């Protein structure tokens, strides 16, 4: 996965699915709907508003076909914060 400063235009944001039965991965995550299937998803509050957000299941075919995966330093930091929270 490549770390970029700016997410390329027309990228999709692959998001974790969410159900009300489980806590958000990070407490300030925003709940939305997958642009493909309508399933509830969660993403970071600073995710670009115009970016198309889909659940991991809907993103999987693009990933399997070799679509380039990118992330930002902020996204990596958020993921580390989430992982640290899991270890407590
Ligand atoms: Zn979906």
Q: How many domain regions? A: 1
Question: What portion of residues is helical?
Answer: 25-40%
* Largest sheet composition: 4 strands, mixed
Q: How many β-strands, per DSSP?
A: 6
Bound molecules: zinc ion
Mean pLDDT: 92
- What structural class results from the helix and strand content? alpha/beta
Helical stretch count? 2
Rg to the nearest angstrom?
Answer: 13 Å
* N to C succession of SSEs: EEEEEHEH
Q: How much strand? A: 25-35%
Approximate shape:
globular
Distance between the termini: 27 Å
Low-confidence stretches: none
Order of strands in the sheet with the most strands?
Answer: 3-4-2-5
What do you see in this structure?
The strands form 2 sheets. A 4-stranded mixed sheet has the order 3-4-2-5. Strands 1-6 form a two-stranded parallel sheet. With 88 residues, the protein is an alpha/beta fold. Strand 3 and strand 4 (40-43) form a beta hairpin. Helices cover 27% and strands 25% of the residues. The chain has one domain. The model has no long low-confidence stretch (mean pLDDT 92). It has helices spanning 56-64, 73-87; strands at 2-3, 12-17, 30-33, 40-43, 52-55, 70-71. The chain is globular and about 35 Å long. It has 2 helices and 6 strands, in the order βββββαβα. Bound molecules: zinc ion (ZN). Zinc ion binds at residues 34, 36-37, 39, 54-55, 57-58.
Lay out the secondary structure:
Blueprint: E1 2-3, E2 12-17, E3 30-33, E4 40-43, E5 52-55, H1 56-64, E6 70-71, H2 73-87
Parallel strand pairs: 1-6, 2-5
Antiparallel strand pairs: 2-4, 3-4
This protein binds zinc ion (ZN).
Zinc ion is lined by residues 34, 36-37, 39, 54-55, 57-58.
